[in-house]
Specification:
Blueprint: H1 2-10, H2 39-56, E1 64-66, E2 72-74, H3 75-101
Antiparallel strand pairs: 1-2
């Protein structure tokens, strides 16, 4: 979820983003079949903290930011999209769990 957090938050939110090392770790770095890189959890937490602070400091959810293509988007739309993304990924994780343990409908 770090990539969607970064992408959605960066779209139209004109504030300083958390600093990133461009060394292949964190957001895009991977290890051979060993799971995500060690920095990924920290990167995700930084993005979530930034988003929480931005939302808390916003006067209303209707504020609009400008996307790269010139269109505008309301903060509310970004948040709804993030909820959809999290729900989709949680559903994927649930499908994997069902395949592993055979329980359905929990």
């Amino acid at each position: 979820m770090t990539r969607p957090e970064t992408h959605q938050a960066a779209q139209g939110i004109p504030q300083q983003r958390p600093a990133r090392a461009n060394d292949g770790s964190g957001l895009h770095g991977r290890r051979d079949y060993g799971g995500p890189s060690a920095g990924l959890d920290t990167t995700w937490r930084d993005e979530v903290a930034f988003a929480e602070n931005f939302v808390a400091g916003s006067p209303e959810l209707g504020i609009r930011g400008t996307l790269r293509d010139g269109d505008t988007i309301a903060l509310r739309e970004v948040l709804v999209h993030m909820i959809e993304e999290y729900a989709r990924r949680c559903g994927h994780a649930d499908l994997l769990r069902e395949r592993i343990d055979g329980r359905v409908g929990q």
